[in-house]
Amino acid sequence: MVGYRYRDDIATADVAFEAWGESLEALFAAAADATVNVMVTDLETISPVVQRRMEAGPETVDMLLFALLQELIFYKDAEQLLLRVGRIQISSSDPLQPPPGSERGRGEPATRSRQLATSPSFDQEDTLRLTAELCGEPLNPAKHDLIVDLKAVTLHRFKVEHTARGWEALVVLDI
Amino acid sequence: MATVKDFKKISDTIWELPPGYKVGMRVPARIYATQKLLEDMDAGVVEQVTNVATLPGIVEYAFCMPDGHWGYGFPIGGVAAMDAKTGVISPGGIGFDINCGMRLVRTGLTHDEVKPHLRTLIDRLFARVPAGVGSTGFIKLSQSEFRHAVEAGARWAVKNGHGWEEDLELTEDRGCIAGADATKVSSKAVERGFKQIGTLGSGNHYLEIQVAKPENVLDADLARAFGFTLPNQVAVMFHCGSRGFGHQVATDYLQLFLKVMEKKYGLRTPDRELACAPFSSPEGRDYFAAMKCAINMSFANRQVILHRIREVFSDVFHKDPADLGLHQVYDIAHNTARLERHLVGGSEQQVLVHRKGATRALGPGHPDLPDIYRATGQPVILGGSMETGSYLLAGVTGGAQTFNSTAHGSGRTMSRTQAKKRFHGKKLQQDMEGRGIYVRTASFAGLAEEAGPAYKNIDDVVAATEQAGISKRVVRLVPMGVVKG
After folding, report:
1. Which residues in A lie closer than 8 A to residue B72 (C-beta atoms)?
2. B408 classed as catalytic
3. Where are the alpha helices (DSSP H) in chain A?
């Protein structure tokens, strides 16, 4: 239950997508892939050669996702890197919230982050922190079939929400 | 979605939604379009232009130009003026690609003189003006040199040998908007942009060799005044912006404004992308000074690209660029907020005009025009799709009704995903070549997204601006060769 799909019916000149995952971490990884997939046809052509670590927060859950996607766009310009999410952890820095414990690699089960997700106020509080390891390699037109450049993550209709199937996001990217 | 009957018809090309249309609207919204263009506009335009009408300090009307389409925050084609004392500034009213704009360069060459060299010219331009995802340019600057460059704009470029003094006179704000302050720009923005001067970008950015066919000269006097004097005269038009630097400046301040907007200033907007701050606040002033750096980065970027065009033509024709008549016609910005003086309620006052996917278009006699265009009005460069062509227009006195603003392009009508499903990049390239248009692209998928049918009919859009009295047609330019990002 992880994935994304592009939406034809929002923001004509730009690209909108929905992403989903059972856990918040899985959603973030899916949204990151949806973002990079706008620039590169086949994500599997991106080899995990270099790593960049990022931290963000304390923030609300949606602005953490904004920060993650923005970081991917930043590295594309600043270091000409194409990156995907490797390890990622989202935790609450509020001592009253359940302890962090959702660190995991891509594709591993997300049991502990589901615990986090059940916290009723989790999607409203602004005390969340993200640490992530972004993995990828320098962009190379001979190896990567490049499509179109991304300018920014917009906040138009931007949302991250907890639903029956886990976590979902709607994102419009500026082309 | 509002239908045509929801609008009050002011004229055949002006359609109004009153403040009662949506809670919070402070002024009416006015869409400039023929009935056909209005009916074809997507639902997002109405939602967004009426959202703009709720912004604090907005005066007169929230406008949308005939090429309007669904953007984020403002619609693309959106124009709004805010009272400079009581109004707000919003990054969502400018766009991430600050000063995305157009530059037009004429040549003293005709179609027949250029045609035999077309492939070489386009191939070399493709090599010398890097395009596509994450591309970097040939100018090596340190980050501190870049900070200086973005304060000085095209003036920096000319001073460093990338252009002629006359180019500055023929650029909006003379290539350097005053008040740019690089201390208001984050190091992230500098890191994103400092290697990108002289690059095209991607998406709808392009560089084209075009021709002005005699049948497409629509106003011979104005065409002559803008330097189009030969039958089938060739020109070069390009569209690009402030690259990653401007995108990051906008992103940084969007995030900052979200934090202070409600908590510090008690402001709410119907769409978070319209996040704003009072123009007179420290945050508003800082963004204005940083945004001006992005305006200047874009002027510098287009100035360097102009220089590359001169180098390439000079190499191919073995002549000095001046002997080839490679003079800039004009350079205009699409995505800006500028302090200007306009009539509000009958008296002149200073307002902050946000234009997002809209062009400033000054009429004859306006004091901000360079002397050479004082009598004609400002040249307005309107980029169309790569298959159908573009326009050179002129500003008119009647443009005061929209704070001297007009359309900026043909306006998209089909989503990028749909276009990719319908068109195939390689085949499109071959088809266009069959029609005599030579195309080089950094991405065939990206090329498919820019197919002609993905856009509105540009002839309809420019006709609507002329009919509404906000700009006037001068020359229609059709592509011979295209470089796409």
Report:
1. 11, 14, 154-156, 172, 174
2. yes
3. 24-39, 61-78, 111-117
Those residues of chain A whose CB sits closer than 8 Å to some CB in chain B are 6, 8-15, 39-41, 63, 66, 70, 73-74, 76-78, 80, 139, 141, 145-158, 172, 174-175
- pTM score, two decimals? 0.95
Asked if B247's CB is within 8 angstroms of A152's CB, the reply is yes
Other CB atoms closer than 10 Å to residue A7's CB: what's the count? 17
Q: What is the pLDDT of residues A102-131, one digit of tens each?
A: 444 444 433 334 344 444 455 567 889 999
- Find which of A70, A79, A83, A151 to mutate to test the B interface (most B CBs within 10 Å of its CB): A151
| Chain A residue nearest residue B421, CA to CA | A8
The proportion of chain B whose per-residue pLDDT surpasses 90, expressed as a percent, equals 97
For residue range B75-93, what is the model confidence (pLDDT) as tens digits?
999 999 999 999 999 999 9
Record the tokens describing residue B149, joined without a space: 């460059």
Average per-residue pLDDT for chain A? 87
- The residue count of chain B comes to 485
CB contact under 8 A, A172 and B72: yes
* Residues with Cβ within 8 Å of residue B430, at least 6 apart in sequence: none
Cross-chain residue pair A41–B445, CB shorter than 8 Å: yes
Q: How large is the ipTM? A: 0.95
pLDDT band of residue A97 (cuts 50, 70, 90) is: low
Burial of residue B323 (number of CB atoms within 10 Å: 0-12, 13-18, 19+): exposed
Q: Which residue has the tokens 């993995």?
A: A135
CB B276 within 8 A of CB B257: yes
B258 has a pLDDT exceeding 70:
yes
CB count within 10 Å of CB B177 equals: 22
User: How confident is residue A13, by pLDDT bands cut at 50, 70 and 90?
Assistant: confident
Decide if B72 and A156 are in contact by the 8 Å CB cutoff: yes
B416 with A76: Cβ contact below 8 A: no
* pLDDT tier, A158 (very low <50, low <70, confident <90, very high otherwise): very high
Span B191-226, pLDDT tens digits: 999 999 999 999 999 999 999 999 999 999 999 999
Question: pLDDT value at position A12?
Answer: 80
Tell me which residue has tokens 């109405």: B46
Q: Which residues of B touch A175 (CB under 8 A)?
A: 202-204, 416
Considering only CA atoms, give the Rg of chain B: 21
